[in-house]
């Protein structure tokens, strides 16, 4: 599962203080944060918990909850529908967000990282390799599990990249049951 990061405003809300206080804590080195390429500060969940414990602040249960949403990215609508239906039938407790292009997916991931991504490799506009490279280059998203899928024969360079950076590769056509089981396994959900 990916590491969770929070904005200054989210941390201020959790701690019940103005956002300027959180900025001051970061500047003073009391709260560890990093700056995104866009110039925004992000506080890792682990650092927030350490800070809140040291400061005797109550830790809201909401920040400890694990995400159960899976993002599926594929430009074939029938594949998105098949995967969505498989999860409705076999794992209704897992929320599925289905998107048809990588650019839209990256925008959503930045706002709300999923627990896991199932992603087609061969897509128009931005292919799955490009999406994966963007995810792996950013500390907030580098830890997100990726299941790559494709019905096309991949070039050796893409095969090598996926072997090193994806957690699993499933060739189309595939059994929806196998995909659901694999997703549950990666999310640490007891599948009996």
How would a textbook summarize the main sheet?
5 strands, parallel
Here the CATH topology of the largest domain equals Rossmann fold
Helical residue percent band: 40-55%
| CATH homologous superfamily label of the largest domain | Response regulator
Give me the count of strands. Answer: 8
Strand-residue fraction?
15-25%
Number of domains: 2
Number of helices: 8
Structural class: alpha/beta
Could you give the order of the helices and strands?
EHHEEHEHEHEHEHEH
Q: What's the CATH architecture of the largest domain?
A: 3-Layer(aba) Sandwich
Q: If strands are numbered along the chain, what order do they take across the biggest sheet?
A: 5-4-6-7-8
Break the fold down into its secondary structure elements and pairings.
Elements: E1 5-6, H1 8-15, H2 19-27, E2 34-35, E3 41-44, H3 45-54, E4 69-73, H4 77-90, E5 95-99, H5 102-111, E6 116-120, H6 128-136, E7 145-150, H7 156-165, E8 168-171, H8 176-187
Parallel strand pairs: 4-5, 4-6, 6-7, 7-8
Antiparallel strand pairs: 1-3, 2-3
Helix pairs in contact: 1-2, 4-8, 5-6
């Amino acid at each position: 599962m990916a590491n969770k990061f929070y904005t200054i405003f989210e941390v201020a809300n959790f701690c019940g203080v103005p956002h300027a206080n959180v900025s001051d804590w970061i500047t003073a080195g009391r709260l560890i944060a990093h700056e995104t390429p866009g110039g925004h500060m992000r506080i890792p969940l682990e650092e927030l918990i350490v800070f809140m414990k040291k400061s005797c602040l109550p830790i809201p249960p909401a920040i400890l909850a694990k995400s159960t949403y899976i993002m599926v990215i594929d430009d074939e609508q029938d594949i998105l529908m098949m995967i969505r239906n498989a999860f409705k039938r076999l794992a209704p407790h897992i929320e599925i967000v289905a998107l048809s292009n990588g650019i839209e997916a990256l925008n959503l991931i930045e706002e709300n990282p999923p627990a896991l991504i199932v992603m087609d490799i061969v897509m128009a506009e931005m292919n799955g390799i490009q999406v994966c490279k963007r995810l792996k280059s950013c500390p907030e998203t580098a830890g997100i599990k990726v299941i790559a899928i494709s019905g096309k024969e991949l070039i050796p360079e893409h095969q090598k990249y996926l072997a090193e950076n994806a957690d699993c590769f499933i060739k189309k056509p595939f059994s929806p049951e196998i995909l659901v089981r694999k997703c549950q396994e990666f999310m640490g959900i007891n599948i009996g």
